[in-house]
Amino acid sequence: MTTVAAYAAPAAKAPLERTTIERRAVGEFDVLIDVKFAGICHSDIHQAREGWGTAIFPMVPGHEIAGVVSEVGPGVTKYAVGDRVGVGCMVDSCRACDNCRAGLQQYCVKRPTWTYNDVDKDGEPTYGGYSEKIVVDENYVVRIPDGLSLDVAAPLLCAGITTYSPLRHWNVGPGKKVAVVGFGGLGHMGVKIAHALGAEVTVLSQSLRKQDDGRRLGADHYHATSDPETFEKLKGTFDVILNTVSAPFDFAPFLALLRTGGAMVNVGLPEEPVEITLSSLFGNRRSVTSSNIGGIPETQEMLDFCAEHGLGAEIELIRADEINEAYERVLVSDVRYRFVIDATTI
What we know:
The protein is an alpha/beta fold. Helix content is about 25%, strand content about 25%. It is globular and about 60 Å long. This is alcohol dehydrogenase (NADP(+)). Keywords: Metal-binding, Oxidoreductase, Zinc. Its EC number is 1.1.1.2.
């Protein structure tokens, strides 16, 4: 066991504070990673404040982890000391079900082991990336290409793969029209990736306040959803709508923006139930669906794609003692566009 410094929520809705946690000894197939940067995802706030249900405390959040390998177990073949690596939302799965065998570990039939707020196979709670070090099985570690700086790569381990996976699954590319609802931590990566895939990209945001940023990052069009004309003008326009908003809203006007056979893919997860009127789906054979991160092979594919196209997250680097302030700023959308913790300050 190794004792490391970390930032943890001691109880639901309590401010995070500096503490120490125990990391397991490096096993045969384990990789010890010195965490360099950890992104702050809205999911961290949902879980630390029990917005998604009962949680495990103390909780060390963080599933956007970028670092450097400092030790490997004797059976490790994929990584060596000094390698630049990342860890995302899961650190294990059953490995035997059809989904795991297909590289879709995020849909493990027996459920993945999440990077934090979960219990590992040894019965111990998992602790996330707001820490100095983390130990992870090599099969749930990905390589960060040299073309990506570790600080801007960290958010790709959640925000990047969460948007990349559905865009690839729904065949977004040249000739396709994509709308991204919400222009925050997820949305800005959705715009970058959809643009790099060759799609015509529209941002649908509450206001035009971030329009210049949207166009700079790859949006061809930018519309305010607070303007009723937006919904009239864009009826029947989009092949795919990527909804990154983690709060409930009226789906019907957005569904009307889909072409025949179009899909609205939800990657934000509100704490409250969402109501959908079935009649809003019938007119154009529209679909409402969802997507949950990506498997390990697809996460590596996403990182390689981002490196090839020069896509990193737009970040604001903070010290660890600024985490609680950052949480409050995330809740009022006061970040452009992802907070990243400098782990040397933990």
